[in-house]
């Protein structure tokens, strides 16, 4: 490959909104056979909103009831210190119910799981239902059913547990359903990647049911969905694919994708959404200026065209 041709290819990519960190990246793009797509913020917009109609709380002995403004304000306060898109959805809905959210003390963020802290003197935890169970607050049956209903339609569920007033530990009391929107271009882009001979894989920390729902919407096979992956383990999923011979292009946006993007770059490519976090952008070889998977398709086409001409 002549340097001039590679520069021309790099320029052509740039005009399509694909910023390449060095001309050699075009060569790696040409060899890809697998594209690992992060779900939240990559395949979807990553702008989540609370679905009140699918959010419930328990006040025994009654059956489940709609979420009350008081409960929403409590979760919103707890989540206000978190930067996760799930937290933003809850906090923004809660701000609509009150002039000022109560303060949080002893706040802690548990990566890929949820948050804990003290609101109005009460210790509380909000996060993945499975994580709350690990903390000793499994969901009662009536709420478990609500979780299945919400997740099957693609929602992410935030469960809330609060410390019992008389010190008998955490108790799960509510579930909040949060929904993301698919990027409209994602199904078409996934189909194009397939037409180019690439295998799309969906990778997410989110629950299996929501992941399967999104995969079906964009046309990714059930066998190519890897869900409930902790942030630290996304890297290992990419390394495993590589160990089995794949040349992986990984597309992501989050802090939790950075290690996986860098790993993909060792024998393939890391691609970051331009709308993503700085850490992801730094770890990647390619930046997609338009936050859109069509740019991945464009990158593959340009690299193939460029390297075909100069061979
Ligand atoms: P993703 O791969 O979808 O970006 P993460 O690894 O960041 O996901 O998080 C995995 C899951 O952990 C989320 O889908 C959510 O259920 C839960 N979670 C993470 N952070 C929070 C939070 N601040 N509040 C509630 N749940 C959270
Ligand atoms: Mg993401």
From TrEMBL:
Source species, domain of life: Bacteria
Q: Where in the cell is it found?
A: Cell membrane
Give the family this protein belongs to, as stated in its UniProt record. Answer: Belongs to the cation transport ATPase (P-type) (TC 3.A.3) family. Type IB subfamily.
What is the protein's given name? Answer: Copper-translocating P-type ATPase
Q: What is the lineage of its organism?
A: Bacteria, Bacillati, Actinomycetota, Actinomycetes, Actinomycetales
Q: Which residues of the full protein are shown?
A: 491 to 801 of 849
